[in-house]
Amino acid sequence: MERFAVDRMLGKLAKWLRVLGYDVIYLRQSGNAEILSRLQEGRILLTRDSRAGSWHKHGKVFVISANDPKEQLREVVQGLSLSRMDEAFFSRCLICNHLLSTVSREDAREDVPEYIWQTHQQFRRCEDCGKVYWSGTHSEKMRQRLEAILADCK
C-alpha cells in the first residue's frame, strides 16, 4: 500500500487519505531535510508546489492542481491509480496517523460521552494519542461523502 508525505498546503487531503486507510505524514513545518527523509523512506510526496520537480530525483512526487480537498482526493486517486480498500476505511487516527485498535466497551467508558457509551457497542482507540473513535452519524456521512467523491474515479 502506498505511503504519503503531504505538504502543509494539503492538510484536509491528508485527513481524507487517512479515512481511506492510507499512511499519511502531514508535513506542517518541514524543511528540505524532512522532505528528503520522507522520500527516501519510500513515501510519495503530495504537494501543490509546482516547483517541487527538483524532488523527483529523490523519490516519487505528485503535484496536485486542484484547490478543493474533494477534487484533490479525486485527483490523487485517479492520478496514482489508488485501489479502494473498504476494509481499511477508518483504520487510522485522523489526528496523528497511527493505527486504531479495537477496545472493549468498558475500556472506552471514561473517554466517551455518556450517551455514546450507552448507545454504542464498538470502539477503537489510537495506539499513539489515545483518541477514541466509534461509528456514528458523522462517520456514516464521511463514508457517503467518500462514495460520492470516488464514484466517478476509474
Short account of what is shown:
The protein contains six helices and seven strands; from the N terminus they run βαβαββαβααββα. With 154 residues, the protein is α/β, with parallel strands linked by helices. It has a four-stranded parallel beta sheet, sandwiched between helices. A three-stranded antiparallel beta sheet has the order 5-6-7.
- Give the helix proportion (percent range): 25-40%
> Any idea how many domains?
2
User: Could you describe the largest sheet, including whether it forms a barrel?
Assistant: 4 strands, parallel
In N-to-C order, the SSE pattern is EHEHEEHEHHEEH
Radius of gyration: 17 Å
Described by the principal axes of the CA atoms, the overall outline is: globular
Distinct helical segment count? 6
Structural class: alpha/beta
Q: What is the typical, i.e. mean, pLDDT?
A: 91
The total beta strand count reads 7
Residue runs with pLDDT of under 50 for 5 or more positions: none
Commentary on this structure:
This protein has helices at about 10-20, 30-40, 70-80, 105-110, 115-120, 135-150; strands spanning about 5, 25, 45, 60-65, 100-105, 125, 130-135. Helix 1 packs across helix 3. A 4-stranded parallel sheet has the order 2-1-3-4, sandwiched between helices. The chain has a 3-stranded antiparallel sheet with strand order 5-6-7. It contains 6 helices and 7 strands. It folds into 2 domains: about 5-90; about 100-150, no CATH class. The mean pLDDT is about 90. It is about 35% helix and about 20% strand.
